[in-house]
Amino acid sequence: MKFLQQLRLGFRSLLLHKLRSALAVLGILIGVTAVIWLVAMGEGVSYQAQQQIKDLGATSIIVRSIKPAEESSRSDSNARMGISYGLLREDFERIITNVPTIGRAVPMREISREVRHREQFIDGMVIACTPDYFGMNRLKIARGRAISEIDMTSYANVVVLAHEAAVKLFPIEDPLGRAVQIGQEFYVIIGVAAERSAAAAIGGSLDARQYDRDVYIPLTTFRARIGDRVFTSRAGSFQLETVELTQITAVVDDMKEVDSTADIIRVLLQRYHKVVDYAIVVPKELLEQAETMRAMFNVLLLLIAGISLLVGGIGIMNIMLATVTERTREIGIRRALGATKGEIVQQFLWETVVLSGTGGLLGVLFGFLCGPTVNGVRFGVRASLPEVWAALPPNIRNLEPRLAPWSIIAAFAISVGVGIVFGIYPARRAANMDPIEALRHE
Amino acid sequence: MPPKQSLEPSAGPPPRDVVAAIRGVSKVYSLGGHEVKALDNVSIEFRQGDYVAIMGSSGSGKSTLLNVLGCLDRPTTGQYYLAGQDVAVMDDETLSRIRGRYLGFIFQSYNLIQQLSVVENIEVPLSYQRPPMPGGRERCLKLAELVGLSKRLGHRPTELSGGQQQRVAIARALVNNPHVILADEPTGNLDTATSHEIMDLLDALNKAGRTIVMVTHENDIAERARRIVRLRDGRIESIAEVRREAIPVAGLTSSVNPG
User: Fold this and answer.
1) Which of A56, A310, B57, B101 has the most neighbouring CB atoms within 10 Å?
2) For residue A13, which residues of chain B lie inside 8 Å, CB to CB?
């Protein structure tokens, strides 16, 4: 009852100066909305990153071939033979025989090639892999079947198409059982993979990966038909490269063994590679890094938001000081009629809390509009500026803000806190006025 | 009319029918190292139902005396008994409570709170009662009726005439059922006709048993009181009894009588 009365009195006093109060409320509103929006965006980005890392598998270790700098390439091949680098089939054997903590390991070779079906063609990514690759990468087969062991042993010319690749090559017909041309060879389509969204680059360790132009063939077939030595064209000149494996993905049985297993692989590879022509990516580490990044990001956001709320608070203080000066007479009257200093402090604190609380509530309300606003902007950009849209990185295009409940509670609590902190000084100033002087005030 | 010094300075609380008494009160202000005695050893007491006008030229100390009586200012030396307690030594919070509980204020410039309606203005002192007074709102409505403003309960002070505003202030001064009503030039801002209306109201309240202390510089207003205290240079120059005919006012006696 008393509480409601104070609240009502606060509202009414503030309504005397609607514009002034509205501006003070606006200051807090912007601060609170900023907190909620920024945190939601940050959470959205980090959620995306975490999902992608989780897709890679928290217990997996990925070893990739990288082309070393020109002068340090392996010297056993002469210049005319081109360069030779990267992971070897021997490396794969060594890893699976020497590292007991590894449950499964999948070798993989990938190369960019044109994939053609009559007039339709795509600039495809040929992924040569073993049957385990599909399970390990959570790649679902929508129709047909995946690559089997028999395909491997029989060097079968079979291919599984990614969803988008199948759609592009076979806009009308059913791709199953038909053939596509990769290089000089024809491959029979045995399956089509389910749709999969693109993965963004993670923390600079893995490139952004789009799955929509993948075509999967057996690793043995790749070696027999295409071979390790491939021509690549770069900057107008052809180059002969010898790469045995592009990537080895190892899955550790026990999450606790991931770090030590990665160390063993690192040592093992170091012994047989004179130059570092490989990179070891541990998604679990990435996940931990992402967590740390997220925490740092959140601290940064809170700092920014804190500053904007501070500014809002100063606005409130400014207005309350003006109010106190203006209402000196009222303060004198109330003191004469029996109000203690404490009651005057309370009265003015209630006003600031009403101001900042209103700002906080409206801010939370606007905070909830974060998702729809982002979607609206996204829709607008896609519809009116398609080039700009295409140029945006996929993690911006796919950004879904995630409202964090803690940020809503924190933002509101901080706004009320700001009201109290910045209200105390004006309220105390009001209370400490000499009632006699205050009554005389014009 | 012989001047009558009502009380010799003595120790201990005054008798029960004395609602307020100051004894040997001095108030010294220092202005730039220079000491100014606004009140110099003033003693006076007010009995239940008293009606006192305090007069004096400006600088005579009448405002200071009223501030001390109103517990807005503490005397430098001396005692002030209000409701049987020495309030001269009390802290700010207790003084606030004393003001809220035992005193009613009427000001020259009405001092209503602009953003509150008539009835809410009357209600203000009730919000500072500890413990809260029961039946507050009904009491406010009754008092609004008493001062003739029951048709303007929702009006803001700016929508009322000076006389009406002062009536609201009088109702507000009565709402906490005070022991003493302190009026500071209650007719100072009003024309003659309205002044007399307001004074009639105060007279009636006194008839009904209210103790009223009023500061004024107008003789005809002061004549309404039972006693006139004249101050000069911070000292009591004279205390005079006023003799006049009683003017009965119907209806007021029963409704305003303190409980």
Assistant:
1) A56
2) 115
